[in-house]
Amino acid sequence: MRIGQRLSLVSQRTLLCKRLTLLCIGLLMSIVVAIPKGQAQQAADATEKEIERYRAMLSDPFANPAFLNVDRGEKLWTTPRGTKNVSLQGCDLGEGPGKVDGAYAKLPRYFTDADRVMDLEQRLLWCMETVQAVDMKDVIKRRFSGPGVISDMEDLVAYVANKSSGMKFAASLAHPKEQEMHAVGEAMFYRRSAVMDFSCATCHSDDGKRIRLQGLPNLSKSGKNAQETMGSWPTYRVSQSQMRTMQHRLWDCYRQMRMPAPDYASDGITALTIFLTKQAEGGDILVPSIKR
Amino acid sequence: MTISHRTFAAAALISAALVSVASGQQTAKVAPETIAAYVKNTWKAPAEGWQARVDQDQTQRICSETRNSPGKGDFEKILAREVASVAYPADGKVLGDWKAGEAVAQIGTGGQFSDKADGPRGGNCYACHQMAAKELSFGTLGPSLLEYGKIRKYAAADAKAAYAKIYNAQSVLPCSNMPRFGHNKFLTEQQIKDVTAYLFDPESPVNKP
């Protein structure tokens, strides 16, 4: 079994919640105790250490509810649906119809049949529409999960991405359209706009910075930060009690940047995803992960 | 050397130190029209009043294209334009209520598509800056502002400069990462005065060890 693949743990969820609550309390207490007044640097170092410890405890694959999403995603993938009453096993994610193993590691990529570069979400939508002919309105409406709302898209992304867990990112960028999207993604990363004048780079172009106590990965350069970030999405967000995809992360970034909500599965999001995936090239994919 | 030349030289040093992407070289790998088409595709129909947030003003465009390291000509143009945009209080008093300013510094909501229009709106200063020593949850994107007023001996000229910096950070340093809170009408004049007082009132926790 590859690292972190297929660990279904329904009954541990309640236990997990209790453990996390205790962890949080412990974390807060140790921060408060560990900080002598006025020693800002020492305090910052101690805080960083504690946050690192908290993160390490969170990334326990045996206690990750997102593996429920993986299981639901597998069922969705193999169940005949839509007016054509077929499963997604006729869907080509780039490695051939029905081939899921390793497909996510090479996305986003150019697809000849659609004559477009697509990320995983765009490709899944395309397959649902053309292969299965399912009700897309309902699928889009449930694009992000919430209290009482299960998202087929999140579940399918969890399943497909998990089938590349333990592999490395290897986007090709051989096709001119992939290269164009990469260049656009890079430009959008530095594009400042809206009432805060923010771009992605405002928060993600320096090493070791934080917003409040939250560490910020430097995504302006390739290497460790980008690899660890991109290699850990999709992820179970403890703070949201839901599994989230990179699509949702970027939507949330633009929310905080005071931009309007970007359209779901739009080309700008895919462009940014190509840019970030390229920055993470060679990095290990270990998903779904679990985060704050 | 004129003042603005000195400002440019000093600011260039600062931005070289602060901006890791520095060096000003932007590679024109893709035409601006192509980028614009992707942006249009990504925000096809923003809610009423929100399209202006997608579109860039001149300053945002130049700062994006040069990755916050504008050439000398652009630097001077941005500086002149942003300096001219700063509106000081009519009565000249830049110090408001530091307690209200502390709330503005703490509040991180307002203006997001998930926020109610009449909900709390703050400057979220603590997201990026250390301010009062007692507040341990602070970010590090901006410099520490510990004892900001005390260090400056509570000088009136420095308080006025701080008001201008909060109103429009780029009137001090073109392509600064800091939002132009007053210029972009994100904070009200009163809120900016209150934050200035949070920095400059001797009773403010910012100035307590």
Terminal Cα span of chain A: 26 Å
Structure class of chain B: mainly alpha
Any idea what the CATH superfamily of the largest domain in chain B is called?
A: Cytochrome c-like domain
Shape of chain A: globular
How far apart the termini of chain B lie comes to 40 Å
Summed up, the domain count of chain B is 2
Structural class of chain A: mainly alpha
What would you note in describing this structure?
Chain A is mostly helical. Chain A has helices at 12-34, 40-58, 66-78, 120-132, 136-141, 152-162, 176-189, 200-204, 224-230, 246-256, 267-279; strands at residues 109-111, 116-118, 209-211, 214-216, 235-237, 242-244, 289-291. In chain A, 46% of the residues lie in helices and 7% in strands. Chain A has a three-stranded mixed beta sheet. A two-stranded antiparallel sheet of chain A has the order 1-2. A two-stranded antiparallel ribbon of chain A has the order 3-4. Chain A starts with 11 loop residues before the first helix and ends with a strand. Chain B is mainly alpha-helical and 209 residues long. Helices cover 43% and strands 0% of the residues of chain B. In chain B, helix 6 crosses helix 9 and helix 8 packs across helix 9 (189-200). The longest helix of chain B is centred in the N-terminal third of the chain and has 16 residues, at 3-18.
